[in-house]
Design a protein that fits this description.
- With 191 residues, this protein is an all-beta fold.
- 0% of the residues lie in helices and 35% in strands.
- It has no helices and 12 strands.
- A 6-stranded mixed beta sheet has the order 3-4-5-6-7-8, with no helix packed on it. Strands 9-10-11-12 form a 4-stranded antiparallel beta sheet, with no helix packed on it. A two-stranded parallel sheet has the order 1-2.
- Strand 9 and strand 10 form a beta hairpin.
- The radius of gyration is 24 Å and the shape is globular.
Amino acid sequence: GDVGIGTTDPDRQLEIVKAGTAGGAILRLKSTGETSAGDNIGKIEFFNSDTTDHTPGVMASIKAIAGPSGGEGHLQFLTDMPSEGAEANKVALHLHSNANVGIGTTNPASPVEVALGGSFNTVNLANLNNGSIGFGNNAGSNKQPTIAGKSSDSIGLLLIGGTNNGNTLGDVVFDARENDNSTFADTTNPA
C-alpha cells in the first residue's frame, strides 16, 4: 500500500505532506560517522526491473559525495549502465561544492565546464525560438564577450569577439594566437 507522512490519504507510494508556511516537506538522507573525501553520503537509485532487453539493474542515480574535508560535498547525476545488471557509473553531471558545474568532468575549473571525449568533440547549443545563441558580459563597456578555443600546448584561436565601439550590437573580430603564448593578434578588420 501507499505510505503517507503528514497525510492519511497518500496519492503515491510515499507522500510527505507539510504546509509551506511551516517550512514545507523535507526528505533527509542522513549519513552517520566520519567521512572522507569521495565517500558516498547518500544516494537515490532508479532501478529498472525490465528483463526484455537487459538484465535488471540501476540505470541512473543521484548521489552526494563528500568533499575534501568530509563536510562539504558535491552532487552527481549518474547514467549509463556499463553492462547488463551493473550499476550506472558514468557521471553525466557534477555539481561541485564551489558551485561549478561539470559535464563530462568531476573537477570543473570554471563555472561551467564541458569535457568531451571521443572523435566528435562537439557541443551543440540550440535556440528553437529564433535559431540564435546570445552571450554577453556585464563586466563593463571595455570587456568583450568571446568564444575561444585553446589546446593543451597554448595554441589558441579566438573564434568570435564582439567589440564595443558604440554600435548597438558591436563588431565581430576574428583573431588567432600561435604557440609562443603571445596575445591574440587581430587578423581581420572589424566587420
